[in-house]
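In this supplementary section we document a worked example of the pipeline. Step one takes a protein sequence of length 306 as its only input; no multiple sequence alignment statistics are reported here. Step two produces a three-dimensional model, which step three serialises into structure tokens for compact storage. The input and output of this example are shown verbatim.
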Amino acid sequence: MAKSPSKRTAEPELFSHAETVVPAPEARPAPAKKKAASLVKSAAVSKSRQAAAGAAATPAALSGATATDNRPTAEAGSPTQPPADRLNEIFDGLKQKSTAKQAIFRNTQAAFDCLRLVSQELVVELTRRLTPLDSSVLIEYRSINDMEYHIRFSGDLLVFVMHSNVVTFPDDYGPMPSSYVAADFRRRFFGHIMAYNFMADSIKYQRLNDPGYLVGRLLVNIDNHYFLEGVQQLELPDNDMSDNAITPSAMRLFVESAMIAAVNNDLIAPLLPEIQKISVKQKLENQQVSRGSKVGFSFSHQQSFE
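The serialised model returned by step three reads:
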């Protein structure tokens, strides 16, 4: 028997024509009409507020200069000319105070140079007298810069420092209440030179925690007069600043007194409980446990004022 031709198997239909799937519409954001309207409204409110603030602002706040004396202000970046009274005030301040301070600075610098010269002379004289007795006693002068120099003698070091600024003091301090200062307001300003006493080995071995002591301070005014204040060991003369003109002999007396005060201020060894412990930092920084310290000075003011 002949085989009947095989029927082609029909591919199964996944969906019938009646069940054709229509793709679901994509989700779209809701119209932003309300949001846009809200933003427009907010912007309008903001602009109205800015306009109100601009109307309320003073012209001086919107211009390049502050209005004074009811004068019109300039545009931003174009300041008006300052009133003449302010210019006169600035001019008077520069003419009187600034000019006086420049003169005081020059006087202080001249006094410091005078101290340098008398210090070098003292070092030469002391070296000539001490060397035949004991050549191991070292006395030397060393210039550090224009505003500092050192005098080293034995284990002491005097550091003289000139400050670069001109200063003043409260009305009840030092020479301020005197009639001499009250007679000229320019005498209220001073240049100042300080003398500190350190142990020489503190500098040599860089023992940064070792203290130094203020021995004296020299105040210089516009008249080239000085006021000397310092420790009791300086044995300051009892006189008035109006009579104290800066002279080489007066500067030499200051240096000699500072050296005497330093020599007479002996080292005191630390007590045993104070040196029972030492930190690694102290050891690394070469801070010897057995180092001594100065007794310190009693500071006083021994000049009279009129």
